[in-house]
Design goal:
There is one protein chain. By secondary structure, the chain is of the alpha+beta class. The chain has 2 domains: about 45-50 and about 125-200, Outer membrane lipoprotein wza fold like; about 60-125, wza like fold. Helix content is about 25%, strand content about 25%. The protein has a 5-stranded mixed beta sheet with strand order 7-6-10-8-9. A 3-stranded antiparallel beta sheet has the order 2-1-5, with helices on one face. The longest helix is centred in the first third of the chain and has 22 residues, at about 5-25.
Length: about 200
């Protein structure tokens, strides 16, 4: 074998050896994939924050009927989530989103009153939320957009010295709704009931 051929062979073997070493990682490189600290809790919080707001008792709405100022105005939902409008009378709104309520009012106005009604709805005042348990001033508080559990605690005078900040339960919708464990960064909605637990050590 000539010197050139022998050199070429050694060069190929060297390159193959180097490539295999790089691919195999030599046992030094970590293949661990970082995992979220609490994937279950993260999923719960995403669900809560993404929940579609529905109107209910205590909400105050601004309803505009296009080109009909006499039908437009501000309306507050009563204890059953109903209110009355000119022409169509009582409207049941409890549990409907703004879009669903717009459609309901339009359908009622089409029924013998207007040809092509166009309705838009704005929530002027949200129903209160409630914060209970180990806070200094438990009770109901006015809701504003973008509130979190921590904002609610601040309105309620802060945590008591017995509060367990890792034991916070949120209930949404009704007295029969499921209770969900949340954190201080969880977004809250009007009507929510937040309960801060007590620590025992």
């Amino acid at each position: 074998m000539s010197r050139l051929s022998r050199f070429s062979t050694l060069l190929v073997l060297f390159l193959l050896s180097f490539g295999l070493s790089a691919c195999g990682g030599g046992g030094g490189a970590s293949t661990d994939v970082p995992q979220p600290a609490n994937p279950v809790g993260a999923a719960v919080e995403t669900t809560l924050e993404a929940a579609d707001y529905t109107v209910a008792a205590g909400d105050r709405l601004r309803i505009n009927v296009f080109r009909h100022e006499d039908l437009s105005g501000e309306f507050e939902l009563d204890g059953r989530g109903n209110f009355s409008m000119p022409l169509i009378g009582q409207v049941s709104a409890n549990g409907l989103s703004s879009t669903e309520l717009e459609t309901r009012i339009e359908d009622m106005l089409k029924d013998g009153y207007l040809v092509d009604p166009q309705v838009s709805i704005e929530v002027l005042t949200y129903r209160p939320f409630y914060i209970l348990g180990e806070v200094n001033s438990p009770g109901s508080y006015e809701y504003s957009n973008g509130m979190t559990v921590l904002n609610g605690v601040a309105l309620a005078g802060g945590f008591t010295y017995r509060a367990d900040q890792n034991d916070i339960i949120l209930q949404r919708g009704s007295a029969n709704a499921p209770k969900v464990a949340v954190s201080v960064t969880t977004a809250i909605a009007p009507g929510d009931v937040v309960t801060v637990g007590e620590r025992y050590f």
